[in-house]
Amino acid sequence: MIVPRLIERKRDGGRLEPREIRELVLAYAADRIPDYQMAALLMAIYFEGLDREEMNALMEAMLESGDRLDLARLPLPRIDKHSTGGVGDKTSLILAPLIASLGVAVPMMSGRGLGHTGGTLDKLESIPGFRTHLSLAETEKQVARIGCAMLSQTDEIVPADRKLYALRDATATVEVIPLIAASIMSKKISESLTGLVLDVKRGSGSFLPKLDDELKLAQAMIDLGARHECPVVALLTAMDRPLGEACGNALEVAEAIDVLKGGGPPDLIEVTMALGAEMLILATVAASREGAREMMDDAIASGRAMIKFEEIILAQGGDAGVTGDPSQLPRAKHSRELQAKRAGVVQRVDPREIGYGVIALGGGRRNMEDTVDPSVGFVIPVKPGGRVEKGQTLGVVYARSEKDIELGISILEKAITIGESAVSGLPLVSHRVTAREVEDLA
Ligand code: URA
What is the model's pLDDT at position 347? Predict the structure, then answer.
């Protein structure tokens, strides 16, 4: 295989054979192809795309780079949920324990921050001691014992995605359908699921801001699932503003804990419950959305969902005391509120500005080697369309230094605009996509 010739062919709009893709990916996972060549190929794919067969070959090669979880012996449905990436999106932190507490096995392999979006693994690692790097055997044992494990890609499980994910993050090659679809579905197929729910983000803060592309992404992932006997349901949800109020790793864990205690912001609850209902219906544990909602409300009100979260934290070496006392989570030394300089209607809360803002404060990566400060970020209680009075708090910055506080305030000032016109954002949950149809829910 002469790698530059393959890069050249893709760069010039040509097609790669499935066997060429397989050879490339396996060689890259085994460190036999350098990052600079793979980065050039990713950029060529970014511009020229992959057809369905190439995309499937990429996903299968990523899967083949490691082993799969062996969970078929479990007497439970095995359901996971994955998001295409958002800002303030902590639904996985809530859904994994909530759905596992209702008798469904949830083997959840997640990612780190990608582009301007946050990652479930970085959030979980803000819990003191929490280990996301689990072996295959540990994961299988934990899922059999407590019904859930929350883990990263490793040298054993989809190592090719682990390397490609980090490389894409550092080379601006994230936002393209075949790379997103193959990355997500390689992780999910490796979990040996009986069903998968996808949260495909919509709007300016998503990787693909056009509805047409979001639907194509959903359909591409549903197709990859169907080829590997994994039924997939996708919900399209709003990412034209951050989800919930907290943006930043430890702040988001605290907000997720709040939801598991029966509190939390309404938009976060609505999206979480819509995804959870699809998980329970796919698992055939609930027969309707209403029934599923009742079960989830009960699991939260009875404390069962929180107990499950504590079990997961303990099983993975973390300090479960954070659920009773979230102030034990890492806390930024400095914080400051931004107040509205005038009364009016919030016109926008720009999720990209906020997402990149978290990275600028140290809460995400600028390159592959960066470490993440879990304590920093923003809490933004206002939403587009909401009325604010002069002096009302628009947001709070959490930062490592007074200099970063200034930076954070300037980011909030840029991200939040106030005007006079009535504004309505995207519907929180707008479409439901299955192999058979696209339902408009709005
Ligand atoms: N989540 C993933 O796992 N991969 C992507 O490419 C985007 C979101």
Answer: 98
58 alpha carbon to ligand 1 midpoint, in Å?
14
Burial class (CB in 10 A: 0-12, 13-18, 19+), 153: buried
Assess contact for 185 and 221: CB atoms under 8 A.
yes
Distance between CA atoms of residues 40 and 47, nearest Å: 11
Whole-angstrom distance, CA of residue 243 vs CA of residue 87: 6
Q: Is the CB of 206 under 6 A from ligand 1?
A: no
| Protein residue whose Cα sits closest to atom 5 of ligand 1 | 180
Asked if residues 183 and 161 have their Cβ atoms less than 8 Å apart, the reply is yes
Q: What is the secondary structure of 13-42 as a DSSP string?
A: T----HHHHHHHHHHHHTT-S-HHHHHHHH
Task: Work out the pLDDT band at 368, boundaries 50, 70, 90.
Answer: confident
State if residue 119 touches ligand 1 by the CB under 6 angstroms criterion.
no
Q: Assign 365 a pLDDT band (cuts: 50, 70, 90).
A: confident
pTM of the complete model beyond 0.90 = yes
Exposed e or buried b for every residue in 383-407, given b needs 16+ CB within 10 A?
bbeeebeeeeebbbbbbbeeebbeb
Q: Is 346 helix (H, G, I), strand (E, B) or coil?
A: strand
Which residues are tagged catalytic?
A: 82, 161, 168, 183, 187
Compute the distance from residue 336 Cα to the ligand 1 centre, in Å. 33
Instruction: Give the atom of ligand 1 at the shortest distance from the alpha carbon of 174.
Output: 6
Is 85 close to ligand 1, i.e. is its CB under 6 Å away? Answer: yes
pLDDT surpassing 90 at residue 442: no
- Average pLDDT of the chain to the nearest whole number: 96
Confidence tier at 22 by pLDDT (50, 70, 90): very high
| Contact between residue 418 and residue 388 where contact means Cβ atoms under 8 Å apart | yes
- Sign of the Cα pseudo-torsion (217, 220, 224, 230, in order): positive
Q: Is the CB of 322 under 6 A from ligand 1?
A: no
Radius of gyration of the chain (CA): 21
